[in-house]
Design brief:
By secondary structure, the protein is α/β, with parallel strands linked by helices. The chain folds into 2 domains: 285 residues, 4-Layer Sandwich (Metallo-beta-lactamase, Chain A), CATH 3.60.15; 187 residues, Rossmann fold (3-Layer(aba) Sandwich). It is 30% helix and 20% strand. The chain is globular and about 70 Å long. 49% of the residues are buried.
Length: 496
């Protein structure tokens, strides 16, 4: 679907409903290739005076028809894209990059230095998981494809990492060429959603477009509050929690109750958690609750090599974390010491699972313990084996600590599924299924509106992306009714 717009004009709708025109000295269009009507697969194509910039390049996750989009050819030739701008290192924003490179993309990928660090963990791990899943499907014969192939390989991931171009926060750089005075620029602004996360501001002539990425939260541990922004002509805004409020901060009491109750039953707690971002906050709270003697001292196992690597990057970038956290950490005597001082790691009985054999031994262990493993929506990774070993036992608890996209195992379980398919087998669900939304790294609608209140003038148009239909509609209504801003819900493959 394409809107009929005069090339050098945007048709605007002002507060009083009259049509207005914004004359620009550049020709541009936006096409929503992903995260339009859904929360995954973020890809937004900006065409400026005949050149192409792709903002984010994420994997579709969740429902089968969404996942199948990862295998379909892009509507555009990857080789025709000049530059990629990456807001952060979550898979739904960066996980398609190796496929793009394999398809012929040869440009630079601009991102923050911390995003580059985390991508060095995320992308090879994603490739490895896909290669392993393909091998497992071929071995067990549960794929309809013969042979089953990975979406991309470890070689593709390695080639992608070589194209990452790190840029510090609030340092505009030209997208192409060397003359920043006449070339469109990109600038990253801290979004408080993940280490290295950002909004990406692109300026071209008198056009100022802000790609929101994912908006972080206020007053949470580990990460800073999202930076305020005062203006943009065009705003792309996420709406993951556009219809919901997070649980009121209870100072960790709900988590403490779940841990105490499971320990009293002699059970194991399995926490599927995103290896970057979510693990840090989970460990922060476990350590704090243990130190305050609000939970018993239990063995805590971190079964995610990627999460351990991410913690090292967090420790080396204390200046980018929550000011209170970095101030309390003090100077680190070594990288490992610094990692412990991040206050999200060192419970007294913490064990890092280093090898596949250690992971296998932990799967078979019936010892009461807390196991943190990825992935956060239980879509793949080591956590699947932990779930298969624990989910049929009512003594155990599976705890989800963030948003669960439609079609994922996490969503099925939190919606009350009585059986679940894992590794080619179906298991009855007898373990307790718990969910704590307060640890989500996405702003809820009150936090989104708080951030929007920092604008000194309304954007000429706000496009809502990265949300399910109900959340998108609710947030659009709230922005229109409370702020009286022009707002539009982006459609998949829509060009404006």
């Amino acid at each position: 679907m394409e809107r009929d717009l005069i090339p050098d004009t945007i048709i605007l709708y002002a507060r009083e409903g009259k049509r207005q025109r914004l004359s620009l000295n550049v020709t541009f269009s936006l096409t929503f290739l992903g995260a339009a009507g859904t929360v995954t697969g973020s890809k937004h194509l900006l065409e400026l005076d005949g050149r192409r910039v792709l903002i984010d390049c994420g994997l579709f996750q969740g429902l089968k028809d969404l996942r199948e989009r990862n295998w379909a050819p892009l509507p555009i030739d990857p080789a025709s894209i000049d530059v990629v701008v990456l807001t952060h290192a979550h898979l739904d924003h960066c996980g398609y990059l190796p496929r793009l490179v394999a398809g012929g993309f040869r440009g630079r990928i601009f991102c923050t230095p911390a995003t580059k660090d985390l991508c060095s963990l995320v992308l090879p791990d994603a490739a490895h998981i896909q290669e392993e899943d393909a091998r497992e499907a071929n071995r067990r014969g549960y794929s309809k494809h013969q042979p089953a192939l990975p979406l991309y390989t470890s070689v593709d991931a390695a080639r992608t990492l070589g194209r990452l171009q790190p840029v510090g926060y609030e340092r505009p750089v030209p997208l192409w060429g060397s003359d920043a005075g006449s070339t469109p620029t990109v600038e990253f602004i801290n979004a408080g959603h993940l280490l290295g996360s950002s909004y990406a501001r692109i300026r071209a002539g008198d056009l100022n477009i802000l790609f929101g990425g994912d908006l972080g939260r206020y007053g949470r541990p580990v990460l800073p509050d999202p930076s305020p922004v005062t203006d943009a002509d065009v705003l792309l805004l996420e709406s993951t929690y556009g219809d919901r409020l997070h649980d009121t901060d209870d100072n960790g009491e709900r988590l403490a109750t779940i841990v105490r109750d499971t320990a009293a039953r002699g059970g194991k707690i399995v926490i599927p958690a995103f290896a970057i971002g979510r693990v840090e906050e989970v460990l922060y709270w476990l350590k704090r609750l243990e130190e305050e003697q609000r939970i018993p001292s239990m063995p805590v196992y971190l079964d995610s090599p990627m999460a351990v690597g991410a913690l090292q990057f967090y420790s080396s970038r204390l200046n980018e974390l929550d000011p209170e956290l970095s101030a309390s950490a003090g100077p680190a005597r070594s990288k490992f010491d610094g990692m412990r001082r991040v206050a999200a790691f060192a419970t007294t009985r913490m064990t890092v699972v280093a090898s596949p054999q250690q992971s296998a031994d932990l799967v078979t262990s019936r010892q009461p313990a807390i196991v943190i493993s990825s992935s956060g929506m239980a879509t793949g990774g080591r956590v699947l084996r932990h779930l298969a070993a624990t989910i049929t036992n009512p003594k155990n608890t599976v705890l989800f600590v963030g948003y669960q996209a439609a079609g994922t195992r996490g969503r099925l379980l939190t919606d009350g599924a009585t059986e679940i398919k894992l590794l080619g087998r179906t298991y009855a669900v007898a373990a307790r299924i718990e969910r704590i939304d307060s640890m989500s790294a996405h702003a809820d609608y009150s936090e989104i509106m708080r951030w929007l209140a920092g604008f000194t003038r309304a954007p000429r148009m706000t496009y809502l992306v990265h949300g399910d239909p109900v959340a998108l509609s609710a947030l659009a209504d709230r922005i229109a009714n409370e702020l009286h801003w022009p707002v539009h819900i982006a459609g998949h493959l829509e060009t404006v």
